[in-house]
Design a protein that fits this description.
Oligomer: single chain
Number of helices: 9
Number of strands: 0
Low-confidence stretches: 221-229
Mean pLDDT: 85
Helix content: over 70%
CATH topology: Growth Hormone, Chain: A
């Protein structure tokens, strides 16, 4: 293990968690639809049915097959490419293009509720790709970066064991610290997504898109240099 690998994993975990929290929140703020926690859309759909669902409520169900197709696509992309970050590069391109299209529509005053619903689906697809990356390359991060329930559960269990050991178990302390990066990064992303979503709408996904195009590419280059040395 190189000296900078722990820092690389930490930074990578923070980036992906922030992106997921950002996208999940911004799609909810703009369209009342989750892009990372797609199963949450089932709950929203059920609530809408009780309260009197309209056509937009049924659209939320489309997010599930879109998500599944994205995960399958992620597996296919990895089978055809050599770089681990090719999925994330594709995710970044999808987010950047979606944000750019929405920005142009806003500038031309052509944006509408239905356009936003339609452009949420590419964001759902992008989050599906990130989920696929997490499953295929679990050691690249401290844990899943899109689904926080499992991370919070593990952190809570670790906290219980840590206090039982009177804060002397270094392995548990390290794992709890790592979990805090994931959970904290997601929370930061949620806050940023809420603020920028309120100001700029769905066009703000351009920002995490650019980040994912730039950073993973730098990561692959740095690793190639380490191998060469």
């Amino acid at each position: 293990m190189s000296m900078d690998q722990p820092n690389t994993i930490r930074n990578f975990t923070l980036l992906l968690a922030i992106v997921a929290g950002f996208c999940d929140t911004i799609t909810f703020v703009t369209s009342q639809e989750f892009s990372a926690h797609v199963t949450g859309n089932f709950i929203i759909f059920a609530y809408d049915i009780i309260k009197g669902a309209d056509t937009s409520s049924w659209i939320k169900l489309i997010s599930f097959p879109v998500f599944v197709i994205a995960v399958i696509t992620g597996g296919w992309v990895i089978s055809k490419t050599s770089g681990k970050c090719s999925i994330l590069l594709l995710e970044g391109v999808i987010l950047a293009v979606t944000g750019f299209i929405m920005l142009i529509l806003k500038l031309k005053h052509l944006d509408s509720v239905w356009l936003e619903y339609g452009l949420v689906m590419p964001v759902v697809f992008a989050m599906g790709l990130q989920n696929a990356f997490g499953k295929l390359f679990g050691k690249e991060t401290y844990g899943p970066t899109t689904m926080m329930t499992g991370n919070v559960t593990q952190a809570a269990l670790d906290l219980w064991e840590i206090q039982k050991a009177k804060f002397s178990n270094d392995m548990l302390l390290k794992r709890f610290k790592n979990q805090s990066y994931t959970i904290g990064g997601f929370l930061i992303g949620c806050l940023l997504g809420a603020v920028t979503g309120e100001i700029a709408g769905l066009s703000a996904v351009l920002l995490p898109g650019i980040a994912l195009i730039i950073y993973p590419k730098k990561l692959d280059v740095s690793r190639s240099a380490q191998i060469a040395n």
